[in-house]
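Input (structure):
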């Protein structure tokens, strides 16, 4: 879903693009404008992000959130703020059992696939820990391998 082409008029943002810039219709973000395809440059650790609330149709964060100083909940809260109601976030991160998770010295966080459950009110953890955040998500799809976890999540507003 995430690397597809945005529908005409849709605002899709590739957070923390690095050297994985996405093509036609995507807005590519990174901390610095280190290549010409980076459209927006700002520090994801500084909230609020310089983006309007309820303005984006889709966010993609491929191997980004584990590098931030913000907690997973703080990062999701900011994604929720900038996404329109019922719009999607695609997230990918290495899981704690990945043999490569500790190879990158910039990884700050090590999660299991259940970390997303805490913001979905239909899951066991989402029901138990409702006080973690008021900004809720619906997990639309989840996939895992022995190294990575991917989830598509939709804002509940």
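Output (sequence):
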């Amino acid at each position: 879903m995430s690397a597809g082409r945005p529908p005409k008029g849709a605002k899709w943002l590739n957070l923390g693009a690095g050297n994985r810039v996405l093509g036609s219709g995507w807005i590519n973000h990174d901390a610095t404008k280190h290549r010409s395809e980076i459209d927006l440059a700002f520090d994801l650790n500084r909230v609020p992000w310089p983006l309007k609330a309820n303005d984006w149709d889709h966010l993609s964060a491929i191997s980004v959130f584990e590098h931030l100083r913000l907690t997973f909940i703080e990062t999701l809260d900011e994604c929720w703020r900038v996404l329109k109601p019922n719009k999607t976030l695609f997230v990918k991160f290495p899981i704690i059992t990945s043999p490569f998770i500790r190879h990158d010295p910039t990884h700050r966080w090590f999660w299991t696939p259940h970390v997303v459950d805490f913001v979905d009110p239909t899951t066991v953890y989402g029901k138990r820990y409702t006080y973690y955040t008021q900004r809720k998500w619906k997990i639309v799809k989840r996939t895992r391998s022995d190294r990575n976890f991917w989830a598509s999540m939709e804002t509940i507003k």
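Notes: The first strand starts at residue 12 and ends at 15. Residues 72-82 form the longest helix (11 residues).
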